Amino acid sequence: MSRSSKKENLLDVAERLFYKHGFRGVGLKQIINEANVATMTLYNHFPSKDKLVEAVLKQREERYWSYLDMFIEKDTDSPFILAVEAHCHWLKEESHKGDMFLRAIEDYAGTDNEIENIARGHKAKLLKYFQELAQRKGKENDLDLANQITLLLEGATSMTTIIGAEQATEYTIAIARKIIQDTP
Question: How many whole angstroms from its chain centre is CA 44?
């Protein structure tokens, strides 16, 4: 296995384990064993568990935005609905047991590290994305609309763990249509 494929394997295994068991519930030894690599291989790529968590979050964020970009045509009449649908598809496929970024905020709050900054930055980027989209579409109160859509997506993410992805998607899209319809 090449150096880069070992790194990718470590990131994939770590993401899967962190998502399933939480950041605090997984040790480096478990990641090393499941990735089937030597301890030095992990440390050659990631000097600490925090650096590994940071890399996992960055990888996940990159995948999230790539996923949304596949679904969204910004020049359509309903890019907001497309974004909501894309987020809901992401929930079904990648995030049906909760949000890894919120978990990172919870687990690393107040610890003065980059992990919380990455997770909070992801949430801020989502809000900014919808505000810019609203501005491009000439929507009044672009920040209000961005906050409403972002809150809706965060709620959908939480509710997926309670009512399931299918039902959360159905409700979320219906609410998004109402929000867009009522926004001048």
Answer: 27
The DSSP secondary-structure symbol of 162 reads: H
Task: Summarize pLDDT for 23-60 with one digit per residue, the tens.
Answer: 999 999 999 999 999 999 999 999 999 999 999 999 99
Burial class of residue 121 (count of CB atoms within 10 Å of its CB; 0-12, 13-18, 19+) = middle
Vertex 119 angle, CA 69 and 36, to 5°: 85
pTM of the predicted protein model:
0.89
| Cβ-based neighbours of 76, under 8 Å, separated by 6 or more | 82
Tens-place pLDDT, residues 87-128: 999 999 888 888 999 999 999 988 878 999 999 999 999 999
Q: How many residues does the chain have?
A: 184
Contact 115, 104 (CB under 8 A): yes
